[in-house]
Structures
1.
Amino acid sequence: MLTKIHHVGVVVHNADEAMKFYRDALGLKVTADRVIEDQGVRGVLLEIGGSEIELLEPTREDTGVAKFLATRGEGMHHICFESDDVDAELDGARAKGIELIDQKPRLGLAGMICFLHPKSNHGVLVEFATPLKDGHGH
């Protein structure tokens, strides 16, 4: 079951520069900051209330995030909904004919994650996440 908006993903050229706004100016607390090698991104999560902002900085040019940045520039990338069972959410989306990017959940910064294709979601990239016991995908 979807329980809340877990985070909103924002693609940036430089996460350190972006943190000058989100962390320093707005006062949001960094809860995770790491490079996810297989996705070719540096992800930074900043907490706000019961949700987070995820800054995504590409670390390679051959990734979807890098291509997004090259074609669309910095800005809103995706919305992530938290679920207690990402596998069931993915199966439910598949059964409803929603176009999927991921055929099975995988480990990400927010825990076990999967993405739904924006073609099925009115142009919005949607992510489902089930956080791990420590709250993230560590």
2.
Amino acid sequence: MKFFGKLCFGALLAASAMSTPAFAQDESAEIGEASGPLTLSGGISVTSDYRFRGISLSNEKVAVQPTLTLSHDSGFYVGTWGSSLPDSPAYGKFELDLYGGYATEIAPGTSIDVGVTWYTYPGSDDGGAPTDYFEAIGKLSHDIGPLSATGTVAYAWDQDSLGDDSWYLNLGLGYGVPNTPITLSAGVGYADGSLALTAPDGNYIDWSLGASYVLGPATLSVQYVDTDIKKTGVKAFDTLYDPTVVFTLGVSF
């Protein structure tokens, strides 16, 4: 039941469920300088609408999203990602994701990434009702020249804040246009379970098309996002998953 509340809190204010996509930190390009076996990378971005898995978690308003990751050359990493939120008693003003995992290349052009993310909301006050939860995420990626494909499986088991378990599957494609700083992207995902209760059937499909332009440490991206969630007739809810175009400007270090 938690996700329905998360997805609708923007309307109740007028969700913050999970970030993202994949791991939340994927939303920011990460460029770091190695110091021995460790690499520290991070960045900050401003997005016109914090959309996660097709749903607006910022009530269609601008969000600021910082990230920081510490990686070891063995493949293990830990980090944090955050996003500003519309103020609400249940979720406060900020989402904070803490994550850790292991990433490595298992064959030429093929990589895996497995980890766990903890989603927490500092400053929330909803009468003691839990909002934090954990999610396990696994990815398999393969590159063929400028084309890359990534399959993602995310699983959130039954927890106090969820009431039931939840699955999310995603297939994403990226194409780096040769001899340009432009990358084209497309993705389709399927959500089912407690984190998809905003959909009448308890499951839904989301998809996106986008492009990004890299100039030094800065990245400008534009993305069309949509879902197949049926309208409820309540405008405050329906606008959270209306088709939209999202603009994001990020700087990495």
3.
Amino acid sequence: MSPLNELTPSERGYTLPELLIGTALSLLVIAAATGVYGTSKQTWNAMAAADAVHANARVAMRNLHEQAHMAGAAYLKSNNNGTFTVEISPNEDAGQAALAGVNGTKSVESLTLGHWHALDAIDCQGNTGSTHASVRNDYKLNTSKELSCKDLNLTNSTYQALAEGVEDFQLRYAQANPSAQTLQWKTANQVTDMAQVLAIEVCLRVASINTVHNTKPNPQLKGCQDEALPADGRVRRTFKRVVALRNRDGVMP
């Protein structure tokens, strides 16, 4: 008997067909694992991009909401004799309105919200160094797709970014008609009296900074101006919020 025939199967090793089959199976497993990893990575990137979009929108909306609630507010001024005087915000005076707006293209649209410096010295950027009697925060988009703001009364103030990835910033104003007991939503150029505005609607279209290639826009989702969302691989969301100007109570009889 040949010595080769006396070897056990484990001692003989693998034949060439067996090695080829094993290699092929290993390659299939590696290919499947690579595909799963790629899909998981794209899903993770999409989730991270969506989370960043929502985070930017929250920061911007919270800032606007806080400033809108203070717009035109009165405050109690302490007198030397122990009494208090209700001081009405000078922002409600002509030429120094608590609410102002400019309607136009994305680079022109702006919103200005004003309140007493003594009521709250912190402006939209967090600064407290102004010595002016009032704080007037102006919001608008810059060329880098960022929602920016500054206190118009603060000397040498420059616009600083609040949120990035903001592609559109649109505003509407709910103007009251006391005689007809109605409210009508208008753009800034359609409002005949800003003192009659009881609420503002803010719309932001926010996009992710990085592209997510497996992201396709939902055709049912629209932008602030009812436009279709671009299909360039970025995550996009449109956020709308109505903020009541609570210091305008009493405008409607």
